[in-house]
Amino acid sequence: MTEEKKQKMAGPKIMPGAEEELEYFIRIPEFRERFQRGNAVVLPRRDQEADGRGSTGKLFSQTLSTPTTIPRCIVMFDDTFAAQSSAKYWLPVTTCSVFYQLGTGVCGFGNICHGGIQTTLLDDVMGVLGVLNARLQDGLIPSNELGAYLPTRNQGMLDLTKSLFATEGIEVQFLCPLRTPQVIEVVVHLEEVDADGGSYKFMRAIAAAYEV
After folding, report:
1. Where in the sequence is the domain holding 163, given as residue range(s)?
2. What pLDDT, on a 0 to 100 scale, did the predictor assign at position 90?
3. Three-state SS string across 96-123, please?
4. Cβ pair 46, 56 in contact under 8 A
5. Distance of CA 207 to the CA centre of its chain
6. What is the pLDDT of residue 61?
């Protein structure tokens, strides 16, 4: 294999359906810088995957998918998987970002995004991380190394391939007004998986807001 081909394979990965959203978000310098890192993977937040997960619900696929609410959104994570051998449960991807284009239709007062919408976005990204891990384990998102994300090959990896996800609780602190219209990045970080693998805790925050 030539050096040129090696570099090509190591570049950013664009999943089917993300091309149109990427064309919009790539104009944002912070997004573009992250995307150009060799391990970046982008995929659509709204898709048609038939695995019972993702955006098949009507809240994001219909209600919030209008020109004045959230017309565009895209998921990004880094495929930097390293095999582990642990007696504790763990997941291969522990952080991801969703970039949302917010319109004026999500405001509760003036040009400030409604607190309920902000909470919904935090909750959404938490679910996205679970779906990412499940799809990587299922092979719906190809890994750099064939079969790297199979739970059967990784001691202690929590198997999410047959799991559905629901929020048990969420605590939100509003630190400053979130004004619209603008693009925001919401980041989720996995803190820990409980001893029996039945639940996991997150630290999450709206990391940044970008002008377009």
Report:
1. 3-210
2. 84
3. EEEEEEECHHHEEECCEECHHHHHHHHH
4. no
5. 13
6. 85
- The rounded distance, in Å, linking the Cα atoms of 98 and 6 is 28
Q: Is 180 in contact with 153 (CB distance < 8 Å)?
A: no
Here the CATH number for the domain that contains residue 161 is 3.10.129.10
Contacts (Cβ under 8 Å, ≥6 apart) of 68: 103, 104, 105
Instruction: Split the chain (212 residues) into runs of 10 and give each run's mean pLDDT.
Output: 40 88 95 89 79 66 93 93 74 92 94 93 89 89 82 85 76 88 91 66 61 59
Determine contact, residues 52/16, Cβ cutoff 8 Å.
Answer: no
Distance, in Å, from the CA atom of 111 to the CA atom of 149, rounded to the nearest integer, reads 43
Two tokens, residue 10: 């190591």
Count of structural domains, the chain: 1
Number of other CB atoms surrounding residue 132 within 10 Å: 24
